[in-house]
Amino acid sequence: MTKEDFKINVLYEAMKGQNPWRIGAIILFLFFSIFVFQWSWAEDTAEDELHSIHEPLVTKSLLLDITKTSNLHFIAVGERGHIVYSYDGGNKWKQATVPTRSTLTSVFFLNSKLGWAVGHDAVILTTSDGGKSWTRQFYAPDKEQPFMAIWFQDERFGIAIGAYGMYFDTTDGGENWNNKYYESLDDPDFGLPHFNDIGITPEKVLYITGEAGFVARSNNMGESWTPLDRSYNGSYFSLLVTKENTLFSAGLRGNIWFSKNQAATWEKIETGSVASVNSGIQLSNGDTFFVCMDGVTVHCQNGGETHKVNLRSDRVAIASVVEKNPNHLIAVGEKGIMHIGLDGQNIEP
């Protein structure tokens, strides 16, 4: 049995006998399981001794998230603990020194120096030098659960969320991470959903989105959470909060929904696509831009009222994207770093 056969078999066995609401979440892990999940065959090597391997083609490897602190400084994370950074607008990239080989799924920077990354094996990493070097704050491989997103309010308070309702917070910058359970989020018929993304509005209201149309809101910085009515029963992978306070939730089978009234009601953007939406950003001109599986991109205007769907010629899946300049985006995905235009096609760096 090859490693890829093993991954596919695990996915098949996981789907057998599942509650139908779980199927959407299992599909979510198709991207993170078949393309991402790394199986360690080195029985004699402790994880504490493992660092990501420096590879000459790391910028062409699977990368799952990217962020920026300026139009010159970019940081991306991905498989096998890979973290790369650029200080020249994405023209040249360097690989960071990283104390894990666990796949990393999300990265967040508070400022030009201080940032965090999370991923499989419930790993949480931090950097204080702009992403050049990293230290490990938390690691729990026995959980067999990945963190999917991390967010910080300031240098001390942050939240990390992930699969099967995993929720940790810190009040000391990550020196200590506290496992939290909220009964309000635990459905008696379904259990805790997978938490996939977290965001905050300009009014300091927090939202979490996840499995089976899950959306929850906190008006007190995570002290308590209120689940909201579901407008959609498929899984949300991405949450985008715009500066105009519009919420976008996106996920399975091309679904993008938006709300302009604090999630009281939602409207669906009819993308006409069945490609799952991985993430989205707000552009400097106020538009929003979403990247999907199968090379699909969605460019929304007028707060989601109008949109255009484009298809990359190579059908390469894109996991995350940031804006470098107007009409110039930097994306990451199954083939690493890509410079793309608003039509999703490759452009010169």
Oligomer: single chain
- Total beta-strand segments: 27
SSE pattern: HHEEEEEEEEEEEEEEEEEEEEEEEEEEE
Through-space gap between termini: 41 Å
- Order of neighbouring strands in the sheet with most strands: 1-2-3-4
Structural class of the helices, strands and pairings? mainly beta
In CATH, the architecture is 7 Propeller
Percentage of β-strand residues: 35-45%
**The CATH topology, please?**
Methylamine Dehydrogenase, Chain H
Largest sheet: 4 strands, antiparallel
Please give the radius of gyration in angstroms: 19 Å
State mean pLDDT (0 to 100 scale).
89
Q: How many separate helices?
A: 2
Q: What keyword list fits this structure?
A:
2 helices; 38% strand; Methylamine Dehydrogenase, Chain H; mainly beta; disordered N terminus; 349 residues; 4-stranded antiparallel sheet; single chain
Q: How would you describe this protein?
A:
The chain is mainly beta. The protein has one domain (54-340): 7 Propeller (Methylamine Dehydrogenase, Chain H). The protein is built from two helices and 27 strands. The chain has helices spanning 3-15, 20-34, and strands spanning 63-68, 74-78, 83-86, 94-95, 104-109, 115-119, 123-127, 135-138, 147-152, 158-162, 167-170, 178-179, 195-200, 206-210, 215-218, 226-227, 236-241, 247-251, 256-259, 267-269, 277-282, 288-292, 296-301, 306-311, 318-325, 328-333, 336-340. The strands form seven sheets. It has a four-stranded antiparallel beta sheet with strand order 1-2-3-4, with no helix packed on it. A four-stranded antiparallel beta sheet has the order 5-6-7-8, with no helix packed on it. A four-stranded antiparallel beta sheet has the order 9-10-11-12, with no helix packed on it. A hairpin with a 4-residue loop joins β14 (206-210) and β15. α1 (3-15) runs antiparallel to α2. It is globular and about 50 Å long. It starts with a helix and ends in a 9-residue tail after the last strand. Mean pLDDT is 89; it is low at 1-45.
